[in-house]
Design a protein that fits this description.
With about 230 residues, the protein is of the alpha+beta class. It contains 9 helices and 7 strands. Helix content is about 35%, strand content about 15%. One of its GO terms (biological process) is RNA processing.
Length: about 230
Amino acid sequence: SNDAGEIRRQVEFYFSDSNLPCDAFLLAETGGHANKPIPIKTIHNFKRMRHFQPFSAVVDAIKGSDFLEVNDKDEVFRKEPLDSKFTDDPKENDKLLTSVSMGRSIYAKGFGEETDSSAFDIEEFFSPYGVRSVRLRRQQDGTFKGSVFVEFQDEAAATQFLEMEEKPKYNDKELLTMSKRQYVDTKVNAIHEGTVQPRSPKQWGNNRENRRGGDRGGRGRGRGDRRDRGDRR
């Protein structure tokens, strides 16, 4: 694809306040508040970016961004440095963003088995409703759970979506939706009641959805190193 709008949205998310502070690789490469430029070729090598071709189309698309700058070396950086509230520690930044984003996030289930275009299709499905990110959830072996966490622009937008009288259907199928807070509370109660077994720290570390590593594939809060990360948006 050489869709300029799609390319810009993807790259802008990588550098956004929702992703950059918690993406170990990008945070280190940019130097955080130092806002150092990164070669666009590095970004283009991310799994999620590889289907955007040719490379010149990627460069041209980013040049049209109101959020990012491109220098004469085809390197990209933010027009405004990272907010001072963030630190150089992606784990601490993740805690900060999680506390802030909980109220504006929802859980949605019913997307079926994963296809090559699932990540893009699901993002497109939610795009009319003002979202910041869509994160595909995965089993320990990397299998898509058929559910996602969606972060909206604000809590009002998330509430509005949940309270729609006729919620949109995905491929003509109704979705199970609830606030992320409600989902988390439900899981905690189930663990206390013994109907759900909590994961051990080792299991959490191996889970592609939560580990710091894996595919650098989607628009999502990066917990990755130089390897590609999965379907995080």
